[in-house]
Structure formats: structure tokens, C-alpha cells
Amino acid sequence: MEFTSAWDIIVVGAGHAGIEAALVAARRGLKVAIFTIKLEAIGRMSCNPSIGGPAKGHLAREVDALGGEIGRAADLSGIHYRMLNRSKGPAVWAPRAQNDREAYHRIMREALENQPGLQIIEASINELIISDGKVCGVISQIGHKYYAPAVILATGTFLRGKIHVGKISYPGGRSGEPSADELSLNLGALGLQVMRFKTGTPPRVDMRSLDFSCLEAQAGDEDPQGFSYYRDIALRNQVSCYLTHTTPETSRIIQDNLSESALYSGIITGIGPRYCPSIEDKIVKFPQRDSHHVFIEPEGINTHEAYVNGISTSLPPHIQEQIVHSIPGMEKAVLLRYAYAIEYDYVNPEEIDASLAVKKLPGLYLAGQINGTSGYEEAAAQGIMAGINASLFLEGKDPLILSRSDAYIGVLIDDLVTRGTNEPYRMFTSRAEYRLLLRQDNADERLMPVAHKLGLLSEARWQRFTTMLEVKARETEKLKAQNCTIAGEIKEPVRFAQLLKRPEINFCNLPDYGYNIPEDLSKDIQQRIELEIKYEGYLKRMEEEMQRFRQAEDMNLPEETDYFAIPSVAWEAREKLARIKPRSIGQAMRIPGINYSDSSALMIWLRKNPTGKEHE
């Protein structure tokens, strides 16, 4: 059956994943249509209006380095900036911004509207069009058909979404917006394993009703750092965030009313995020704690609304009022929005490969919460990769697969497709084996060359990046070659680089020892050089580990490998290998349940049968 394709790629959903997917595909010269249930909801920050934090800040900078939009929008809409974890090692330093919710939405909508080759369509999608086992379009709620040889689903929490407040439940993709039930049922009918998760959001309050004398102000950094490389966006702290704590009275109120919670009364069946639990979960699972952190974070500069971070709940409104009023500084708080929990469907990530393509349906890609993840940054990372790989698929080229040694994006996708997830997946620095090499400050060095090859960077940004590399290399060489010229406490000749290795010496101290800081050596480059010199030994050892890792990754497993023909591998392991279809020996070794003897037997068999099928 032949269809006339109006577009090259269709993207369903205009949240953080869908936006990146649509923009990157259009920037690579393809005709793209992006569908949203409501135009006013494009780029909506459904939960906290913030970008970044531990590992999430790394992801946002990686997406930016690949030519994505999240970093630019975060910098343009930021109202409060902090670099977290500065007291710890540089591997876990993490930029975070509090953002103006409305400004972020407006910036993202403008980016879509101004992108050549991209059309926004307000419609709810109910069904995929399948022909000869391949995806070739979608059907809207009103029966209109749209054709394209590649479709990216970035549906967020909308698949059979159900909102819970106390014992009252009703359909919804998020507050005030309808769910997408038919599309979820369609995916199940097509043979995909559809499962269920839950998440939630806290109440919002009017900041004018708070007692700031009981709150601890948290100002932004004096030298704010954002997410987007080489754009010259002026960053300015315009608000403070505030810290308070729950009390024993808060715990008592929750304990006395657990039966009213949708979560604890058995109404909710989906699994929630372990690392971002509801306040009910915190009180039940940590009864020994007298208090929990509560952060009050402004929603924007043109509103008095604030997000109360730390008390997500599904308790009834009147109980929410009691909880909020039991917290110091919030005794008279006026609630503007009540908290709610939401259950939604997602697709088991074992259904996709490392390119985010659905194995059973060529041309179909999944990105964001539909893959079982949580968070804006995780969604954006998947979105840009799905958009890149869908465009490469249409060009008949190999997909872009980032390794765990290349980027946090690589860690995220490899975890999903190799290990799956039994809870909403959230990125942490601890998930990355090579996190000292995958720092937030060097995402441009790791990924901008990739983006340049794909045509995703302007010439101006690329030139500024290459100039930075030249300056960094020049000064690093100078530091390693030149001796200090001022003696002082230094009794014998010593290179500037050796001096910089000392814990008490920072780059800004080097002029005291005769080093001249040239005008083109920015503070950013100084910090990069300092980190690489101070941690040179650790970095070298990690590079050696990475080379061993890459050797296993380079041992490719043919897609047609017949794992059931390998008698030396345990039967359970053969079943998992056949289901997941790992790309390499390295990926196979990371599958839960694949032990050392299984992987060794697989390597031996592969050497004898390099095509993946046993010789007759």
C-alpha cells in the first residue's frame, strides 16, 4: 500500500522530549509535524519550574552541546542560579536554575514556531497507522490521518493518565488537560508491553501569605552559571528560594490520615519514584526522622505563586491545608493549587533498542516518560536522540549511539534498554562509572564535535568552541613547560602545572608566582585546566579503565544472533539475550542475570561463529 507522506517525521507530544525531537529533526532539513493536545501547553513545566541539579544539570548541558534547546530556554528564563555540590569533587558539581514557568513555555513555543520546516498542530492522536509491519502515520481523535515514514511518541504522563486527590480520581494527562487513552490501548494492541507508573506534584502557595522570618533564604550564586555554551546569555538572579522543615505535627497529621491517601488506600496501583517520594512515603518509610526539608521556590517574576518542594501528596484538600499550616513560616499560607498524584502508562523500555527505535515496529521511536523515565532533562536527552536517530534512519545511515563512556545520555539510554526499570528512572551521578570524565563543564568538548558533524551547530558557535580548545591547549602546554619565576617559599625550580597540583593553590593564585593570565583565558577555561591538572592521575586511571570498557563494547553481537543455539549459556540468560538483543559483549554483560560464565561462554562462541549463527 502506498501513502503520500506530508511529512518526514511526526512527533506526538510537545513537552521536553517532543520539542527536542522535533527541533533537531527540522534542523537537519526534514519536514516535521509536532502534535500537542493544547498549544498553550507547549514546553509546560508540569512539576517544579527548574532545570538541572545533580546529573540532571549534566544532561541539560549535554543536550545543549548536541544543538538542543533546553539549555538556551533555561538560561533565558532563569531567575535563580546555583552550582550545587561545590563542597564535593568536580565530578558531581551540578548547575541548577529556578525558572519562570511562563517565560520557559513562551521561549519553547517561539522556538517551534520560528523553526523552518516544522509545523505545530493541535490535535490528540489516537492511533498509529501501520502498513507491512511498519509505521507510516497517525490518526487523530477526529479521524484525520497524517502520514510520515517515521513517528516519535513523546507522550509524557498522558497515556491513560488518571489524577488522584484523596479518594477522588478522574482522567487527565495533568491538571486541566485530558488523557490519551486510545493511543495507549492501540500500543498494547500492537503487541507492545504497556505498564503503569505514578508520580505526583505538591501544592502551590501564595508567597504573600508566608512568614519569611521563619524561613531560611537561599540566594543565588554571585557568579551564576547556566547551561548553554557560547550564546552570551546574561544570567541574573532575581529571586531567592527559601528553606523550612516539616514538624512532628506534620507527621502526626499524615499518620492519622493515611487511609485518606490515594497511595495508601490502595486506589493507586502504579509504582512511584523512589528518589522523589510523596510526603506520605517519607513519613511511613522514615518514621525515626522528626523533620524533612521543604523548599519554597518561586514560579516566576510576575506571579506570587510558589512551588512547595518536598510535600508531594495525594491526600484530600482539607488534609493538605493542615499539612501546609503545620510547617514553620507557612502557618497562614494560602493554597493556590492543591497537590495531586497521577498514574499513567509507559512502554517497557526493553521494547526499544539503543537508538530508541521500537524493535517490533520499524519507523517508530519512543522518548521521555513513555520509556519509564522521570524528569525534564531525562526527557530532553531522549528527545534529541530520538530526533537525530529518526532522521538518520530516513537517510539510510547508522544510528548515533552514545556510549556510557561518552555521556550521561549514553548511561541513561543504556540503563533503560539493558536493565529496564521497575520505577520511574531518574539520572544520578552514581550511575555513571566514568563521571570524573563526564563532568558538567566539559560536555561541549565531548559532544560538540558530534553535533558539528550532524550539522546542528551554527558556524559562530563552532568557531568559538574551537577557539576555546586552542586557548586551553596553549595554556596547558605553557603551564607544563614553564617554571615559576618568583621564589618565595619555593626553594627549587617547579613547573606551574606542578604548583597547581597543590591543594592550597588555585589558578587565581598563579600570578603570585609569576604566571601571566592572558586576556583570552576566561575563568571557564581556567577552571577546566585546573581540574584536569589537579586530577590528572585519577583521569589517567579512568581513561585506562575506559579503554578496557571500549574493548568489550567493540565486540559487536550480530542482530541475528541465535542465542538459543549456544548450549554453554544458561537457559535463563539465553532468554534475556534473545529478548534484549544486545549490540555488544559489553552490553550483554550489563544485563541483570547475565553472569561472568555466561558472558565468557558467549565470547568463546562468538569467536567461532562471528556471523551469530552456528556453522553447519
Care to describe what's here?
The structure is a single chain. This protein is of the alpha+beta class and 616 residues long. It has four domains: 9-199 and 344-453, FAD/NAD(P)-binding domain (3-Layer(bba) Sandwich); 204-342, Elongation Factor Tu (Ef-tu), domain 3; 459-544, tRNA uridine 5-carboxymethylaminomethyl modification enzyme MnmG/GidA (Arc Repressor Mutant, subunit A); 555-608, GidA associated domain, C-terminal subdomain (DNA polymerase, domain 1, Orthogonal Bundle). The chain is built from 18 helices and 21 strands. The protein has helices spanning 16-27, 56-65, 70-77, 101-113, 181-189, 248-256, 279-285, 317-325, 376-394, 408-419, 443-453, 459-481, 496-500, 523-534, 536-553, 571-580, 585-589, 596-608, and strands at residues 9-12, 32-36, 50-52, 78-84, 94-99, 118-122, 125-131, 134-140, 145-147, 150-153, 162-165, 168-171, 194-201, 204-206, 216-218, 241-245, 293-298, 305-309, 334-337, 340-347, 364-366. The strands form five sheets. A six-stranded antiparallel β-sheet has the order 15-16-17-18-14-19, with no helix packed on it. The protein is globular. It starts with 8 loop residues before the first strand and ends in an 8-residue tail after the last helix.
- Tell how many strands the DSSP assignment holds: 21
Largest sheet: 6 strands, antiparallel
Put simply, the count of helices is 18
Q: Alpha-carbon distance between the termini?
A: 39 Å
CATH-defined fold name of the largest domain: FAD/NAD(P)-binding domain
CATH architecture of the largest domain: 3-Layer(bba) Sandwich
What strand line-up does the widest sheet have?
15-16-17-18-14-19
Mean pLDDT: 92
Determine and state the CATH class of the largest domain. Alpha Beta
How many domains would you count in the coordinates?
Answer: 4
Q: In which range does the helix fraction lie?
A: 25-40%
* Shape annotation: globular
Low-confidence stretches: none
Going by helix content, strand content and strand pairing, the class is alpha+beta
Radius of gyration: 26 Å
Strand content: 15-25%
- Under CATH, the homologous superfamily of the largest domain reads FAD/NAD(P)-binding domain
